[in-house]
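WARN retry 2 of 3 for item q-0093 after timeout on previous attempt; input resubmitted unchanged.
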Amino acid sequence: MATATQIKMLIEAHVSKNDDRFKTIVLQLAAHEAKLGHTSFARELRSILNKDQHNNVNIIQFNKDISELINTTVGDYRLSQLVVADEIKERISRILNEYHMKDKLKKFGLQNRRKILLEGLPGTGKTLSATIIATELGMPLCTIKMDKLMTKYMGETGTKLRAIFDAINEYQAVYFFDEFDAIGTDRNKDNDVGEIRRVLNLFLQFIEQDDSESIIIAATNNPQLLDPALFRRFDDVIHYTLPNDTQIPSLLLNRLGQFAPKLSKLDFENIINIGRTLSHAELTKACDDAIKAAIMSDKKIVASEQLIKMIKEKIR
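OK item q-0093 returned
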């Protein structure tokens, strides 16, 4: 539990209305409790802070035409919850740090990273990363509805794309183009059609001219399909892979939470060997299935056998 000094520091931060200091102390408390093995309590502390930030983020009220193209949400995931390669976390941290220090960079004629391409296999954390960036920056996540953007009518897709970039310029947020290869297909492909080529040319023009305060993130499972010109328009390209042998245990324990057995009781060697071909999302779903099975059987922890069974189901 909190020490007398920590309680004193919390009260001082509250009385002085120093919200940043107060939140920092709470996060330090949560980290301390987690080290002591009080993971549920640590998670509750972080959840309280996340709810507070969640409530302070305003949902953008787009007009009717734009709201049909953009789905706006407010996330509650933090960077500390992302289980990916260290390099990916470092590059996301750099995006966040550059945003916070963008005014300082501007004084030297430099721009912060704002246009990001995430590429890699499905279920490896691309969408979660976009959500985390929005949460960490205190912005709503505006996901472009690609099925609404792409139409069969000549010129209509381009008009909608222009409207989206107008919104990007007017409303500061994190804008997420998922399944980006739908509009970013290589113009030299044999199966290319004129309308798709025009849409891609427009996107290249809009993203190059964009100088808003918003963050633009595109994600694709098929980077080999993208037009080479796109890569030059992004400030950063981050590659996602399946979780490795080090990440799998962390991913499982994070998801199992209070249902996780002691480390010595979880057969990690067998679990890693079996689940090595699964993505983050698939392993997470296997954990959820194992937790549900434990709850329904009135058990307080998930057994290795149960978890392995669920992992094998995902493989099949």
